[in-house]
């Protein structure tokens, strides 16, 4: 049955979906109901933590002795989700002892690092799905005056393959996917999931005691770091466009120092105080180049050329041609460093290194140099 909940993003009307946690809860509730009522359950529903009701068809049903196994199909709506369309299974057994025991089987990852939502060794079934399953089964037991307990085993048969498309391995979750969801509902094209992933990674590093790291937007930065011996030995976290949030996580988890290594295309935006560098929010690269080139003495024709430039490398080429490069880049670095320091509010040391794929290293802030020198001395 279709899940007809929509949100509007700009001019688009996008259909929501429901999380792996909701699927696991629905499958568990259907299996438990089948046991308590001694019948085949064809559909099941829950009210998610967001307050939205989700009702689904039960895709598979299997009864063996004192257990029932049911499957629910994941529906991610219009979101880009590696788990969309997969079957999530729950096998439920009745037990004489009270209580509800929840574990993960095939295709559900295991936690191998501290600082994640679950302790090391636990199945990667997060707190909210565990609570959802427990609440629904507790209510069923009360309705049927059942005084025993439940063993719940969540399986995702193709979870190992799907996990290869996620950040799980990097985050310390091995052997499958995570069963997650804080609201039970997937909002399409939500960027929150990526921010949450960065948050989890930062929390995990802090828990391990790794509080001196490099952060970089993505592949360009990672490639640059690997080419430089002074940098490549350090832990690297990719922040995509969310540098402001990532710096905030550094504060929240007690980091000592963070070195920002960024391609000029995103670093120049920092000089304008832009802390979400995606172009849909702000793209003032040429304007920022033009402003600082003007302060270095660039005339009207030069400024017009910079404003018309399509790429940051084209801006740099103009600056080099007019002998404005060094001073302009220095001003950009100084301003970006000031904005970084303002964001971290003195809670830890932050520095900056900027580069271009075409021109290589463009420069670094004084704080950036100090951080790198400190790493060299500590080796």
Describe the structure.
Helix content is 39%, strand content 23%. With 379 residues, it is an alpha/beta fold. It has 2 domains: 6-186, CbiD-like; 192-378, no CATH class. Helix 5 (192-208) runs parallel beside helix 7. The model has no long low-confidence stretch (mean pLDDT 93).
Keywords:
single chain; 379 residues; alpha/beta; CbiD-like; 5-stranded mixed β-sheet; 18 strands
Please describe the topology of this protein.
Blueprint (H helix, E strand, L loop, with lengths): L5 E4 L2 E4 L1 E2 L1 H18 L5 E5 L5 E5 L2 E5 L2 E7 L13 E9 L4 E5 L5 E2 L15 H17 L5 E7 L3 H5 L4 H4 L1 E2 L10 E2 L5 H17 L3 E5 L2 H8 L9 E3 L4 H10 L4 E7 H7 L14 H11 L4 H9 L3 H10 L3 H20 L4 E8 L3 E5 L1 H13 L1
Parallel strand pairs: 9-11, 14-15, 14-16, 16-17
Antiparallel strand pairs: 1-2, 3-13, 4-5, 6-7, 7-8, 8-11, 10-12, 17-18
Helix pairs in contact: 1-2, 5-7, 8-12, 9-10, 9-12, 10-11
């Amino acid at each position: 049955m279709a899940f007809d909940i929509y949100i509007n993003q700009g001019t688009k009307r996008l259909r929501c979906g429901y999380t792996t946690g909701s699927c696991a809860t629905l499958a568990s509730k259907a299996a438990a109901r089948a046991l308590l009522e001694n019948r085949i359950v064809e559909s099941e529903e829950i009210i998610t933590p967001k307050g939205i009701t989700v009702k689904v068809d039960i895709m598979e049903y299997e009864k063996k002795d004192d257990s029932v196994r049911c499957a629910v199909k994941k529906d991610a709506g219009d979101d880009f989700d590696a788990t969309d369309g997969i079957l999530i299974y729950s096998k439920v057994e009745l037990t004489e002892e009270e209580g509800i025991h929840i574990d993960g089987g095939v295709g559900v990852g295991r936690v191998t690092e501290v600082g994640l939502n679950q302790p090391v060794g636990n199945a990667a079934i997060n707190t909210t799905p565990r609570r959802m399953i427990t609440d629904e089964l507790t209510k069923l037991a009360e309705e049927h005056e059942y005084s025993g307990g439940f063993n719940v085993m969540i399986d995702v048969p193709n979870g190992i393959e799907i996990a290869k498309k996620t950040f799980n391995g990097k985050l310390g979750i091995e052997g499958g996917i995570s069963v997650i969801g804080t609201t039970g509902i997937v909002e399409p094209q939500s960027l929150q999931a990526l921010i949450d992933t960065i948050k989890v990674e930062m929390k995990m590093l802090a828990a391990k005691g790794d509080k001196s790291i490099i952060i970089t937007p993505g592949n360009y930065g990672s490639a640059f770091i690997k080419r430089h011996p002074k940098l490549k030995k350090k832990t690297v976290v990719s922040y995509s466009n969310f540098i402001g949030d990532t710096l905030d996580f550094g504060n929240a988890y007690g980091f000592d120092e963070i070195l920002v290594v960024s391609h000029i295309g995103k670093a120049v935006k920092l000089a304008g105080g832009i802390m979400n560098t995606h172009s849909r929010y702000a793209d003032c690269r040429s304007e920022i180049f033009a402003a600082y080139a003007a302060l270095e003495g660039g005339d009207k024709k030069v400024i017009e050329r910079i404003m018309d430039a399509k790429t940051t490398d084209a801006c740099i080429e103009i600056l080099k041609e007019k002998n404005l490069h060094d001073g302009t880049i220095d001003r950009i670095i100084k301003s970006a460093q000031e904005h970084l320091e303002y964001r971290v509010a003195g809670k830890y040391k932050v520095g900056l290194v900027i580069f271009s794929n075409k021109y290589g290293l463009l420069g670094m802030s004084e704080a950036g140099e100090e951080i790198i020198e400190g790493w060299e001395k500590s080796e």
